[in-house]
């Protein structure tokens, strides 16, 4: 095995996409193993590779890491994207947890029944524009700096740009009332590591389609 982190998940966004984002933003190349069958997943469980019988699984620095939040924290700490002290880390944690709450709605959207999709898009728009995005708009406006915490690019900024782009896929004009976030999006999208990640053919996964949903159900449903 090479020295690159090895990611095991489905060939789609799901709970692995934020990990791909963070590694890519840090300039870290990684390898991927895609689960396509229930048998592959059950073998990982049988072999004792998955601590809680769940993926994502990230093999890094000799560890077999599970639990998305723990993996992200490790990557952020390892690549200096986790603030300069405990207070900055706490602020990054709060921002990240808020973004994860919003992203959970995006994560579950492909699995909602067809007659609920319009209502769910309305709910995503409402939460994004009235609960989550105003927090980040205010923070950037108040401190007048380029990034959310300590005027240094951090895990929180990476999670936020991922969320912004994901919401825009559902609600294209969602940032119309948020000039600070528009500027952050432009700034982040032009960072060399993120620009590379966003290019066609890069490791970023496309929005989930019916095939992805079918694969999820096939692999994980008992």
Secondary-structure topology with pairs:
Elements: E1 6-9, H1 17-25, E2 31-34, H2 38-46, E3 57-60, E4 63-66, H3 68-78, H4 86-108, H5 117-143, H6 155-170, H7 179-189, H8 192-198, H9 210-220
Parallel strand pairs: 1-2
Antiparallel strand pairs: 1-3, 3-4
Helix pairs in contact: 1-3, 1-6, 4-5, 4-6, 6-7
Keyword list:
single chain; 222 residues; alpha+beta; 7% strand
What can you see in these coordinates?
The protein has 222 residues and is α+β, with helices and mostly antiparallel strands. 56% of the residues lie in helices and 7% in strands. It is built from nine helices and four strands; from the N terminus they run βαβαββααααααα. The chain has helices at 17-25, 38-46, 68-78, 86-108, 117-143, 155-170, 179-189, 192-198, 210-220, and strands at 6-9, 31-34, 57-60, 63-66. The protein has a four-stranded mixed beta sheet with strand order 2-1-3-4, covered by helices on one side. Helix 1 links the parallel strand 1 and strand 2 (31-34). Helix 4 (86-108) packs parallel to helix 6 (155-170). It starts with 5 loop residues before the first strand and ends with a helix. The relative contact order is 0.16.
């Amino acid at each position: 095995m090479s020295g690159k982190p090895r990611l095991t998940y489905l060939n789609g966004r799901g709970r692995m996409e934020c990990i791909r984002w963070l590694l890519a933003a840090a300039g870290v190349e990684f390898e991927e193993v895609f689960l396509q069958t229930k048998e592959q997943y059950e073998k990982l469980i049988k072999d004792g590779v998955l601590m809680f019988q769940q993926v994502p699984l990230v093999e890094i620095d000799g560890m077999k890491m599970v639990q998305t939040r723990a993996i992200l924290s490790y990557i952020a700490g390892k690549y200096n994207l986790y603030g300069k002290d405990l207070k900055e880390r706490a602020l990054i944690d709060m921002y990240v947890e808020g973004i994860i709450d919003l992203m959970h709605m995006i994560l579950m959207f492909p699995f909602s029944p067809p007659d609920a999709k319009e209502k769910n898009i309305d709910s995503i728009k409402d939460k994004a524009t009235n609960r989550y995005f105003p927090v980040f708009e205010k923070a950037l406006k108040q401190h007048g700096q380029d990034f959310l915490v300590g005027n240094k690019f951090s895990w929180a900024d990476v999670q936020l740009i991922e969320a912004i782009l994901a919401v825009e896929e559902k609600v294209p004009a969602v940032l119309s009332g948020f000039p600070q976030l528009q500027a952050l999006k432009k700034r982040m999208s032009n960072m060399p590591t993120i620009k590379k990640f966003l290019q066609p053919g890069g490791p970023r996964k496309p929005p989930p389609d019916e095939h992805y949903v079918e694969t999820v159900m096939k692999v994980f449903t008992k």
